[in-house]
Amino acid sequence: DVKVTQSSRYLVKRTGEKVFLECVQDMDHENMFWYRQDPGLGLRLIYFSYDVKMKEKGDIPEGYSVSREKKERFSLILESASTNQTSMYLCASSRGLAGDNEQFFGPGTRLTVL
Amino acid sequence: AQTVTQSQPEMSVQEAETVTLSCTYDTSESDYYLFWYKQPPSRQMILVIRQEAYKQQNATENRFSVNFQKAAKSFSLKISDSQLGDAAMYFCASTGDSNYQLIWGAGTKLIIKP
Q1: Model confidence pLDDT, tens digit, residues B75-103
Q2: In chain B, what residues touch A48 (CB-CB under 8 Å)?
Q3: Are A97 and B99 a contacting pair at CB < 8 A?
Q4: How far apart are the first and last CA of chain B?
Q5: How much is the pLDDT for B84?
Q6: Within a 10 A sphere around the Cβ of A45, how many other Cβ atoms?
Q7: Chain B contacts of A107, Cβ < 8 Å?
Q8: CB count in 10 Å sphere of residue B54
């Protein structure tokens, strides 16, 4: 059974803290994605990676960075958390090109920044 | 910019009846793919159905089918014999000009009335 796991389901942090969100997939997928999900806005892509150590900015990369040191792991980093980063964060992975392949999602991390 | 529009923030349907969720998209690509994903409450997002734009035939998966109108850039999802387990957020997505990214709609919350 394919699986994408995220390190936390719920997380509460203070403004200015450094926050790490981790995502692990066991499907040997090349591509991994970090999305932010807000009501009425759908899913917005923060960053994606198509290979180890490779990363591409998505639509809303400001205030975020990512790391992919191993194929199965993709980390999202909030260098200095702010209240406007309170959101649901979804990780996904896929094989190959977007049209040909399904994205598999993790359960999400609901982050609250106080 | 390429966009995907879901004009119905919320829909409700009586159990066992049929419901149609709307989606329109805007792409300049000649070859593209369209998707419907489902996100049940507190559960992971999963793929419902996928349509290749060059295929005339509408995709179907059991009780789920699409009405793909290429000229109108419309891609609606029909759910027949609605079940309580169909209650979820439904997201429409399209490939864009990137090989890896999807463009996502804002989502439609589907409520099933018993």
Answers
A1: 999 999 999 999 999 999 999 777 778 99
A2: 100-101
A3: yes
A4: 41
A5: 97
A6: 22
A7: 43-44
A8: 10
